[in-house]
Amino acid sequence: MNDRDRFAELYDRHAAELLRFCFRQCGNAADAQDLLSITFLEAWRRRGDLRPETARPWLYGIATNVAHNQRRLARRHAAALDRLKAVRPPASHDQQVRELLDDLRTLPRRELDVVALCAWAGLSYEETALALEIPVGTVRSRLNRARRRLGELRATPTRPAGALHD
Fold first, then answer.
1. Cys-Cys link to 154, which of 38, 105, 122, 163 (CB 3.0-4.6 A)?
2. Structural domain of residue 98, as residue ranges?
3. pTM of the model
4. Cα–Cα distance between 142 and 139 in angstroms, integer?
């Protein structure tokens, strides 16, 4: 009997009870199936350590470690999400960004393309000219016109001037 056949027999003998164990570890049927799959993947990887007389406790040990690792991963994920919530910009910043994006949408497409490549993508004037297949002077003039138009829009009585700079 080869490794694959012995392992299939091991799976057939223990999978159902390990699935119940995994369910009791996590309380969710889909997650329990995932834990079981990971358990048997790890067991296959470590099949050289398997001794037939201790197969059942060996599998339970692997399943226990897999469950611990999944809980630790879930805690880390939740903590990372909490940290992300803590660094969100204030609502006033969101409003300013929305207003700026609304103003940008009023630009002619050719000027908006230059702003996007120079300001957002960080391309140089020369790189922007190559990307758009236009002369460098045209990039400079379009960017200048875009800045002027945005400056005029941003200087309305409800918003201060100077929102867009180099």
1. 163
2. 91-154
3. 0.52
4. 5
